[in-house]
Amino acid sequence: MSMKKAKMMLESKDIRPSFQRMKIYKLLMETKEHPSVETIYNELKEEIPSLSKMTIYNTLKLFVEKDLARLITIEENEARFDADTSVHGHFKCLKCGCVIDFPVEETKLPAPGNGFTVDNIDFFVRGTCPGCRN
Amino acid sequence: MSMKKAKMMLESKDIRPSFQRMKIYKLLMETKEHPSVETIYNELKEEIPSLSKMTIYNTLKLFVEKDLARLITIEENEARFDADTSVHGHFKCLKCGCVIDFPVEETKLPAPGNGFTVDNIDFFVRGTCPGCRN
DNA sequence: TACTTTTTTGGAATAGATACAATTTTTTTT
DNA sequence: AAAAAAAATTGTATCTATTCCAAAAAAGTA
Fold this sequence. Notes:
CATH superfamily of the largest domain in chain A: Winged helix-like DNA-binding domain superfamily/Winged helix DNA-binding domain
CATH topology of the largest domain in chain A: Arc Repressor Mutant, subunit A
CATH architecture of the largest domain in chain A: Orthogonal Bundle
Strand order of the largest sheet of chain A: 4-3-5
Largest interface: A-B, 37 and 37 residues
Radius of gyration of chain A: 16 Å
Shape of chain A: globular
Number of helices of chain A: 4
CATH class of the largest domain in chain A: Mainly Alpha
Structural class of chain A: alpha+beta
Oligomer: homodimer
Strand content of chain A: 25-35%
Helix content of chain A: 25-40%
Largest sheet of chain A: 3 strands, mixed
């Protein structure tokens, strides 16, 4: 993803496109592994030596508020982020640790019932991936 | 739940029924709010002044391994536990903070696909509960 | 009772996340 | 363009949930 595209995405959500924010968003779009703050920090600190983890925390919090990213919990104790904000499932292999997205039709999901307003859905499955079964 | 019943439940899963373990299991069964380690500690420390949080951590980890409890993530950064190990959904109201269980038919849930073995399903929904909509 | 294993306990250490104030950068005003 | 104001970034100190570890206590076995 180009920096120009990242800039447009941020602006479309009323987020000022600072260099750090654009870089973080770009990385989030290009990385399929739902990186953690630590991962993002390690990826970007070479290019932006002054980068502070606080900036990453602030930025990701802002992205989540503005619906530009989703917070997902793969392991307790570490927040992971996903630039795909649509409803979809996450599968984690307990053997190799890989995380795979899979499609989910929102209309086919069970709902808590009448009277509940749904803002956010997390569907998370753990098990063994095809590669590790062999 | 009686201590005798708690003891039987532990023994059925090959867990030695120490006093602390029985008390923790009993509390977990009687509490619908999916308590955290901190909550369990505060609830039990009066009756068991010597109780250590480490015991609670160890015990819950053992329960989860032996399929006597489930680890659920309601808020990132704090583990919560559920004595109901069957597949069911959790709804969290973003206004009042209440957590409500709701039934889910496992056969109707989307699956990651052929070739995947499923061990564990988490279905978590956030939004507004009927009480808070009024 | 003596010996072995298991469980519990508490204090120190770890790691992710937050609070906060000082800089730096950007935007607005003059 | 310079000054002032606002916003973003940074580093340090701190917090909190969790884990590590080794000693003490309890339970089980001979």
